[in-house]
Amino acid sequence: MPLRHRRPDTCAFQTDTIALEILWQRLIAIMDEVDNAIVRTTFSTILSEGRDFACILTDATGRSLCQSVLSTATFSAVYPRTARSLLKHFPANTLQDGDVLATNDPWIGTGHLPDYILLKPIFYQGRIVACMGTVSHMSDVGGHPGEIEGDDVFGEGLRMAPFKLYEAGRENVTAFDLIGANCRAPDLLLGDLRAMAGAAKVGGTRLCELLEDYGLGDIEDIAEEIMTRSERHMRSRIAELPDGVYRYGMDIDGYIDTAHLAVTVTIKGSEAVVDYAGTSPQSSKGSINSSYNSTLASSMYPFKCALATDVPNNEALFRPIRVVIPEGSILNARFPAAVKARAKTINNLNQVLFGALWPIFGNQVQASNGGIWPLVLKGTEPGYGNFIVDMLPHGGRGALPTMDGMVPVSYPNNSTITPCEVIETRSPILFREKALRPDTGGPGQHRGGLGQTITFRHVGDAPIIFSLTPDRITTLPQGLAGGENSCVGEVLINGQKVFLFPAINLHPGDTVELHIAGGGGFGPVSERDPKKIRHDLEMGYVSPNRVLKDYGVRGDREQS
Fold first, then answer.
1. pLDDT above 60 for 423
2. Which of 64, 167, 309, 477 has CB 3.0 to 4.6 Å from 80, enough for a Cys bridge?
3. Contact status, residue 153 vs residue 338, Cβ threshold 8 Å
4. Cβ-proximal residues to 368 (8 Å cutoff; 6+ apart), any chain
């Protein structure tokens, strides 16, 4: 199908799957270029090293079409809702080429103030043909220095209602001055905002080149066919599932008090309803509350993983799934609830949904994970200046129906771990250990992935602020289908176990130990292959005592 110098209509794309696939993949390639530009030009470690961001292409009305391959999945699922809010606040007929819209409002965006959402309308031949979007977690947006403790969102930083970060290509000086005056490291935050806007500009240029190459006036027909096919695929996959009502509940750490997540999933025909009735009310003891948007996005993730693994992420995939969240619950908190550490809650939603749906999702499920433990170190030190560094370590992955859980890797997000060497070069921190944590994988036919131990020491001369959001330190990562639970994690400072996490002053010589949990097991322990037990023992994943306790067999090398 020759595309150059003529506009293919919807019918042409319906009959020429190859042409559609070529264009679809080129759109994704553009977003990957935007992604690469972000990594290369941002300043803070949480973006350049941790990759806690997403870049998304939408049509002119804000409907998401595709994202970069490594974009954080939950950001991408929220973005269309935010884009439509921004476009409602700034109607298309009021926008100019070079405008960049922005907000970090947790109830409009992705759930907490550090996430800045940018939208750049793409003009081609005098009209808006698409929007280039980025979502990025900033290192500091002001507010109190901690992560998990907080009374309300007002104390968590500067909340920016929808505004123009750039107007006709020029910086909004008032906005930049206001944002910079309300954070601890303005060079980092303002530099990252400029980098995200610049990356979106690159994406807009590439999209216009694509339209020129193929002789297209816009992407409306491509968008419509992408969405039609994506929705049809998800509906067909849901329709293959047996109709029924599936339930699961699980306790999570919460903060101070344990919280409970409950879900009822109803499958009927080609649609699914996810209802979180029975979940704990929003908390007044910590910033672990989630806005509706974050819960919605996290709820889509297991369906995407299980039912549409090969379809690039876009909004239409999730049309057949309706999410019901009681207002005032920890998953749909009312303004102005504290929400800064909302990941501590929503990162467990995939585990609750898999707990309910594993009997019908087949091999595309997994047991509970060891959690994500975001940490931030900030201070001022000769030789390092005014520094802020971030790290996003994870626990072990839960086991699957066909394999053992993976060692610590990001899940359910796409973030990466900041290398120890990078943190050591940017802050007065010396890492003493980063190793797998034996005996932490939940036993089962398939063992949960091991957790990890991270130990570091403050080697500077001035106190620094240490903020941490640990998970699974009071509740156990759950096994599935007869698999057993993992163990809890632990935080020790100078050898003393810690359970409360305000911003902590680390003094020179202080040592921090993070013992992060492993994942839960899958399937009955009695069905584990003896060869795998021997292999675990030989690799040091389990000790002889645990082999005897968990599997009822001697673990000494003569017997193995």
1. yes
2. 64
3. yes
4. 250, 348, 351, 398, 477, 478, 479, 480, 485, 486, 519, 520
Q: How far apart are CA 421 and CA 434, in angstroms?
A: 12
Q: Using the predicted structure, report yes or no on whether residue 207 has a pLDDT greater than 90.
A: yes
Interatomic CA distance for residues 432 and 417, integer angstroms: 17
pLDDT of residue 13: 60
Q: What is the pLDDT of residue 18?
A: 86
pLDDT at 556: 62
**Count of other CB atoms within 10 angstroms of residue 442:** 33
CA distance 408 to 416: 10
| Confidence band, pLDDT 50/70/90 cuts, at residue 9 | low
Residue with tokens 């750039």: 166
Q: Residue 15 has what pLDDT? A: 57
pTM for the whole thing? Answer: 0.93
As a whole number of angstroms, the distance between CA 234 and CA 272 comes to: 10
Q: How far is Cα 173 from Cα 164, in angstroms, rounded to an integer?
A: 10
The pLDDT-based confidence of 480 (bands split at 50, 70, 90) is: very high
Identify the helix (H) or strand (E) that includes residue 73.
helix 73-89
Residue 266 to residues 75, 88, 370: CA-CA distances in angstroms?
25, 33, 28
Structure tokens at 535: 């292999």
In whole angstroms, give the CA distance from residue 454 to residue 372: 13
Question: Residue 277: pLDDT above 60?
Answer: yes
Task: Decide if pLDDT at 544 tops 50.
Answer: yes
8-22, 29-43, 505-519, 540-554: lowest mean pLDDT where? 8-22
- Reading the block at residue 240, the tokens are 């293959």
Instruction: Output DSSP code: residue 31.
Output: H
Q: pLDDT tens, 51-89?
A: 999 999 999 999 999 999 999 888 889 999 999 999 999
* Whole-Å CA distances, 20 to 1, 58, 221, 310: 10, 17, 10, 15
Q: Report the alpha-carbon distance of residue 179 to residue 159 in Å, rounded.
A: 9
- Asked if residue 73 lies in contact with residue 135, where contact means CB atoms within 8 angstroms, the answer is no
The residue whose two tokens read 């919807």 is 10
Question: What CA–CA distance (Å, rounded) separates 222 from 212?
Answer: 15
Closest CA to 125 of 56, 24, 12, 207: 207
pLDDT tens-place string over residues 84-93: 999 999 999 9
391: enclosing H helix or E strand: strand 385-391
Contact 143, 502 (CB under 8 A): no
**Position 338: which residue type?**
A
The single-letter code of the amino acid at 186 is P
Amino acid at 297: A
pLDDT > 70 in the chain, percent: 96
Strand 170-171 with 244-255, pairing: unpaired
Tokens 């506009």 belong to 7
Taking a C-beta distance cutoff of 8 angstroms, is the pair 371, 517 a contact?
Answer: yes
CB atoms within 10 A of CB 206: 18
CA of 489: how far to CAs of 42, 405, 484, in Å? 32, 17, 16
Q: How many CA atoms lie within 13 A of 25 on its CB side?
A: 7
Question: What are the beta bridge partners of residue 57?
Answer: 66, 132
